[in-house]
Amino acid sequence: MERPAWAPQGIDISVPSVSRMYDFYLGGSHNFEVDREAARKAMEFMPGLPKVMQANRAFMRRAVRYALGEGIDQFLDIGSGIPTFGNVHEVAQAIDPAARVAYVDHDPVAVAHSQAVLDGNEGATIAAADLRRPQEIRDSPEVAKLLDFDRPVALLLVAVLHFIEDSDDPQGAVAALRDMLAPGSLLVVTHAAYEGIPLTREEAGGAVGVYRDIRNPLVMRTRDEVARFFDGYELVEPGLVAMPEWRPESPAAPENEDPYAFSGIAGVGRKA
Fold first, then answer.
1. pLDDT tens across 197-231, in order?
2. Are strands 74-78 and 265-271 parallel, antiparallel or unpaired?
3. 250: buried, middle or exposed (CB in 10 Å: 19+, 13-18, 0-12)?
4. DSSP result, 55-68
5. What is the Cα gyration radius of the chain?
6. What is the distance between the alpha carbons of residues 110 and 86, in angstroms, rounded to a whole number?
7. pTM > 0.85
8. Phi/psi at 2 (nearest 5 deg)?
9. Which of 12, 128, 154, 213 is 20 to 30 A from 33, comparing alpha carbons?
10. Given phi > 0 = left and psi -120 to 50 = alpha, else beta, which region is 162?
11. Regarding beta strands 74-78 and 100-105, do their DSSP bridges make them parallel or antiparallel, or are they unpaired?
12. ∠ CA 147-113-150 to the nearest 5 degrees?
Protein backbone atom coordinates (compact mmCIF):
# COMPACT_ATOMS: atom_id res chain seq x y z
CA MET A 1 0.00 0.00 0.00
CA GLU A 2 1.48 3.33 -1.01
CA ARG A 3 1.89 5.83 1.81
CA PRO A 4 0.77 9.34 0.79
CA ALA A 5 3.26 12.14 1.48
CA TRP A 6 0.92 13.64 4.11
CA ALA A 7 0.72 10.45 6.20
CA PRO A 8 2.99 10.67 9.25
CA GLN A 9 5.63 7.96 9.52
CA GLY A 10 4.94 5.25 12.05
CA ILE A 11 1.16 5.07 11.67
CA ASP A 12 -0.46 1.84 10.54
CA ILE A 13 -2.40 2.75 7.41
CA SER A 14 -3.88 -0.75 7.17
CA VAL A 15 -6.19 -0.11 10.16
CA PRO A 16 -9.26 2.16 9.85
CA SER A 17 -9.35 5.28 12.02
CA VAL A 18 -12.58 6.93 13.21
CA SER A 19 -11.19 10.42 12.60
CA ARG A 20 -10.29 9.55 9.00
CA MET A 21 -13.70 7.90 8.49
CA TYR A 22 -15.30 11.12 9.78
CA ASP A 23 -13.13 13.07 7.31
CA PHE A 24 -14.45 10.83 4.52
CA TYR A 25 -18.10 11.34 5.55
CA LEU A 26 -17.52 15.11 5.41
CA GLY A 27 -16.02 14.89 1.93
CA GLY A 28 -12.39 15.38 3.04
CA SER A 29 -9.34 13.95 1.31
CA HIS A 30 -7.28 12.82 4.31
CA ASN A 31 -8.38 9.21 4.47
CA PHE A 32 -7.15 5.88 3.16
CA GLU A 33 -8.95 3.15 1.26
CA VAL A 34 -9.19 1.14 4.49
CA ASP A 35 -11.10 4.06 6.10
CA ARG A 36 -13.37 4.51 3.07
CA GLU A 37 -14.11 0.79 3.04
CA ALA A 38 -15.15 0.79 6.72
CA ALA A 39 -17.19 4.00 6.25
CA ARG A 40 -18.98 2.58 3.20
CA LYS A 41 -19.74 -0.60 5.15
CA ALA A 42 -21.29 1.47 7.98
CA MET A 43 -23.27 3.43 5.36
CA GLU A 44 -24.75 0.19 4.01
CA PHE A 45 -26.62 0.02 7.34
CA MET A 46 -27.01 3.79 7.86
CA PRO A 47 -26.88 5.56 4.51
CA GLY A 48 -27.47 8.90 6.21
CA LEU A 49 -24.17 8.92 8.14
CA PRO A 50 -22.69 11.85 6.15
CA LYS A 51 -25.84 13.86 6.94
CA VAL A 52 -25.41 13.06 10.65
CA MET A 53 -21.81 14.33 10.49
CA GLN A 54 -22.86 17.50 8.66
CA ALA A 55 -25.55 18.22 11.28
CA ASN A 56 -22.93 17.61 13.96
CA ARG A 57 -20.54 20.15 12.40
CA ALA A 58 -23.32 22.71 11.89
CA PHE A 59 -24.30 22.42 15.57
CA MET A 60 -20.64 22.82 16.61
CA ARG A 61 -20.36 26.04 14.60
CA ARG A 62 -23.54 27.45 16.19
CA ALA A 63 -22.26 26.53 19.65
CA VAL A 64 -18.92 28.29 18.98
CA ARG A 65 -20.76 31.43 17.87
CA TYR A 66 -22.99 31.18 20.96
CA ALA A 67 -19.90 30.96 23.22
CA LEU A 68 -18.38 34.04 21.59
CA GLY A 69 -21.68 35.88 22.07
CA GLU A 70 -21.44 34.98 25.78
CA GLY A 71 -18.00 36.61 25.94
CA ILE A 72 -15.97 33.37 25.86
CA ASP A 73 -12.91 33.59 23.62
CA GLN A 74 -11.07 30.38 24.60
CA PHE A 75 -11.91 26.94 23.23
CA LEU A 76 -10.67 23.47 24.18
CA ASP A 77 -11.77 20.95 21.54
CA ILE A 78 -11.03 17.38 22.64
CA GLY A 79 -11.27 14.60 20.06
CA SER A 80 -11.02 17.28 17.38
CA GLY A 81 -10.10 14.92 14.53
CA ILE A 82 -8.80 16.02 11.16
CA PRO A 83 -9.37 19.74 10.59
CA THR A 84 -11.80 20.13 7.72
CA PHE A 85 -13.24 23.37 6.40
CA GLY A 86 -15.18 25.40 8.96
CA ASN A 87 -13.39 24.10 12.04
CA VAL A 88 -13.52 25.77 15.45
CA HIS A 89 -10.59 28.16 14.95
CA GLU A 90 -11.94 29.34 11.58
CA VAL A 91 -15.41 30.04 13.00
CA ALA A 92 -14.11 31.65 16.19
CA GLN A 93 -11.31 33.74 14.68
CA ALA A 94 -13.56 35.02 11.87
CA ILE A 95 -15.66 36.67 14.61
CA ASP A 96 -12.89 37.42 17.13
CA PRO A 97 -9.36 37.32 15.67
CA ALA A 98 -7.99 37.14 19.24
CA ALA A 99 -9.91 33.91 20.02
CA ARG A 100 -7.70 31.04 21.13
CA VAL A 101 -8.34 27.42 20.25
CA ALA A 102 -6.54 24.36 21.61
CA TYR A 103 -7.33 21.13 19.77
CA VAL A 104 -6.61 17.76 21.37
CA ASP A 105 -6.56 14.35 19.69
CA HIS A 106 -4.81 11.04 20.22
CA ASP A 107 -4.82 10.04 16.51
CA PRO A 108 -1.34 10.81 15.08
CA VAL A 109 -2.86 11.53 11.65
CA ALA A 110 -5.25 14.10 13.11
CA VAL A 111 -2.38 15.69 15.07
CA ALA A 112 -0.06 15.85 12.04
CA HIS A 113 -2.74 17.44 9.84
CA SER A 114 -3.71 19.90 12.51
CA GLN A 115 -0.07 20.96 12.89
CA ALA A 116 0.11 21.58 9.13
CA VAL A 117 -3.20 23.48 9.00
CA LEU A 118 -2.43 25.60 12.08
CA ASP A 119 1.15 26.45 11.13
CA GLY A 120 1.64 30.18 11.66
CA ASN A 121 -1.63 30.63 13.56
CA GLU A 122 -0.57 32.06 16.92
CA GLY A 123 -4.04 31.63 18.40
CA ALA A 124 -4.50 27.91 17.72
CA THR A 125 -2.60 24.77 18.62
CA ILE A 126 -2.91 20.97 18.72
CA ALA A 127 -1.90 18.67 21.57
CA ALA A 128 -1.48 14.90 21.30
CA ALA A 129 -3.40 13.67 24.35
CA ASP A 130 -6.31 11.45 25.34
CA LEU A 131 -9.68 12.45 26.80
CA ARG A 132 -9.40 9.52 29.21
CA ARG A 133 -6.44 11.29 30.86
CA PRO A 134 -7.69 14.81 31.62
CA GLN A 135 -4.64 15.88 33.64
CA GLU A 136 -2.41 15.00 30.66
CA ILE A 137 -4.48 17.44 28.57
CA ARG A 138 -4.31 20.19 31.19
CA ASP A 139 -0.54 19.75 31.61
CA SER A 140 0.31 19.50 27.91
CA PRO A 141 2.62 22.41 27.01
CA GLU A 142 0.47 23.39 24.02
CA VAL A 143 -2.73 23.73 26.07
CA ALA A 144 -1.02 25.28 29.10
CA LYS A 145 0.65 27.93 26.94
CA LEU A 146 -2.47 28.96 25.02
CA LEU A 147 -5.41 28.78 27.46
CA ASP A 148 -5.93 30.64 30.73
CA PHE A 149 -7.93 28.32 32.99
CA ASP A 150 -8.62 31.17 35.42
CA ARG A 151 -11.02 32.54 32.77
CA PRO A 152 -14.03 30.80 31.20
CA VAL A 153 -13.32 28.24 28.49
CA ALA A 154 -15.71 26.54 26.07
CA LEU A 155 -14.96 22.80 26.33
CA LEU A 156 -16.03 20.93 23.18
CA LEU A 157 -16.64 17.18 23.40
CA VAL A 158 -18.23 16.84 19.98
CA ALA A 159 -18.80 13.29 18.66
CA VAL A 160 -16.13 11.87 20.96
CA LEU A 161 -17.76 10.57 24.17
CA HIS A 162 -19.55 7.80 22.28
CA PHE A 163 -16.14 6.27 21.51
CA ILE A 164 -15.36 5.87 25.21
CA GLU A 165 -16.72 2.78 26.89
CA ASP A 166 -18.17 2.91 30.39
CA SER A 167 -15.25 0.79 31.62
CA ASP A 168 -12.96 3.74 30.79
CA ASP A 169 -15.08 6.04 32.99
CA PRO A 170 -15.97 8.88 30.62
CA GLN A 171 -18.10 10.33 33.43
CA GLY A 172 -15.03 10.68 35.64
CA ALA A 173 -12.99 12.25 32.83
CA VAL A 174 -15.68 14.84 32.08
CA ALA A 175 -16.02 15.66 35.79
CA ALA A 176 -12.23 16.09 36.12
CA LEU A 177 -12.24 18.47 33.14
CA ARG A 178 -15.16 20.40 34.65
CA ASP A 179 -13.21 20.86 37.88
CA MET A 180 -10.36 22.47 35.90
CA LEU A 181 -12.66 25.09 34.36
CA ALA A 182 -13.53 28.52 35.73
CA PRO A 183 -17.15 29.35 36.59
CA GLY A 184 -19.02 30.57 33.51
CA SER A 185 -17.28 28.01 31.28
CA LEU A 186 -19.38 26.07 28.77
CA LEU A 187 -19.56 22.35 27.97
CA VAL A 188 -20.58 21.54 24.39
CA VAL A 189 -21.53 17.90 23.68
CA THR A 190 -22.90 15.81 20.85
CA HIS A 191 -23.47 12.09 21.35
CA ALA A 192 -24.68 9.20 19.23
CA ALA A 193 -27.97 7.66 20.33
CA TYR A 194 -30.56 5.30 18.86
CA GLU A 195 -33.04 8.07 19.59
CA GLY A 196 -33.94 9.96 16.43
CA ILE A 197 -32.35 7.55 13.93
CA PRO A 198 -34.92 6.83 11.17
CA LEU A 199 -34.17 3.09 11.36
CA THR A 200 -35.02 0.23 13.65
CA ARG A 201 -32.55 -0.44 16.44
CA GLU A 202 -31.51 -3.64 14.65
CA GLU A 203 -30.77 -1.81 11.39
CA ALA A 204 -28.78 0.91 13.13
CA GLY A 205 -27.03 -1.81 15.12
CA GLY A 206 -25.37 -2.96 11.88
CA ALA A 207 -23.50 0.35 11.63
CA VAL A 208 -22.58 0.17 15.31
CA GLY A 209 -21.19 -3.33 14.61
CA VAL A 210 -18.81 -1.94 11.95
CA TYR A 211 -17.19 0.31 14.56
CA ARG A 212 -16.95 -2.56 17.01
CA ASP A 213 -15.24 -4.66 14.34
CA ILE A 214 -12.57 -1.98 13.80
CA ARG A 215 -11.98 -1.88 17.57
CA ASN A 216 -13.53 1.55 18.03
CA PRO A 217 -16.78 0.60 19.73
CA LEU A 218 -19.56 3.13 19.24
CA VAL A 219 -21.40 3.39 22.55
CA MET A 220 -25.01 4.49 22.11
CA ARG A 221 -26.25 6.24 25.25
CA THR A 222 -29.73 7.37 26.26
CA ARG A 223 -30.71 11.00 26.82
CA ASP A 224 -30.55 10.43 30.61
CA GLU A 225 -27.06 8.96 30.34
CA VAL A 226 -25.88 11.91 28.21
CA ALA A 227 -27.49 14.33 30.71
CA ARG A 228 -25.17 12.96 33.42
CA PHE A 229 -22.16 14.42 31.60
CA PHE A 230 -23.66 17.82 32.45
CA ASP A 231 -23.51 17.28 36.23
CA GLY A 232 -22.28 20.57 37.68
CA TYR A 233 -23.51 22.54 34.66
CA GLU A 234 -26.78 24.29 34.01
CA LEU A 235 -28.18 23.32 30.63
CA VAL A 236 -28.62 26.26 28.27
CA GLU A 237 -32.01 26.47 26.51
CA PRO A 238 -33.32 24.44 24.70
CA GLY A 239 -31.55 21.71 26.72
CA LEU A 240 -30.66 18.31 25.28
CA VAL A 241 -32.18 18.07 21.81
CA ALA A 242 -31.53 16.70 18.31
CA MET A 243 -28.68 18.64 16.67
CA PRO A 244 -30.78 20.72 14.22
CA GLU A 245 -33.10 21.74 17.08
CA TRP A 246 -30.36 23.47 19.09
CA ARG A 247 -30.78 27.20 18.36
CA PRO A 248 -31.26 26.82 14.59
CA GLU A 249 -30.23 29.85 12.57
CA SER A 250 -33.35 29.77 10.43
CA PRO A 251 -36.84 28.74 11.44
CA ALA A 252 -36.91 26.10 8.68
CA ALA A 253 -39.49 23.46 9.42
CA PRO A 254 -37.79 20.38 10.87
CA GLU A 255 -39.63 18.14 8.41
CA ASN A 256 -37.69 19.85 5.60
CA GLU A 257 -34.46 18.54 7.09
CA ASP A 258 -33.02 15.15 6.23
CA PRO A 259 -34.39 12.81 8.94
CA TYR A 260 -30.85 11.52 9.57
CA ALA A 261 -29.83 14.98 10.82
CA PHE A 262 -31.97 14.28 13.89
CA SER A 263 -29.90 11.24 14.91
CA GLY A 264 -28.14 11.77 18.21
CA ILE A 265 -28.23 14.31 21.01
CA ALA A 266 -26.68 17.76 21.45
CA GLY A 267 -26.51 20.24 24.31
CA VAL A 268 -24.59 23.09 25.93
CA GLY A 269 -24.18 23.61 29.67
CA ARG A 270 -22.80 26.50 31.73
CA LYS A 271 -20.67 25.87 34.82
CA ALA A 272 -22.10 27.60 37.86
1. 999 999 999 999 999 999 889 999 999 999 999 99
2. unpaired
3. exposed
4. HHHHHHHHHHHHHH
5. 18
6. 16
7. yes
8. -75, 135
9. 128
10. alpha
11. parallel
12. 5
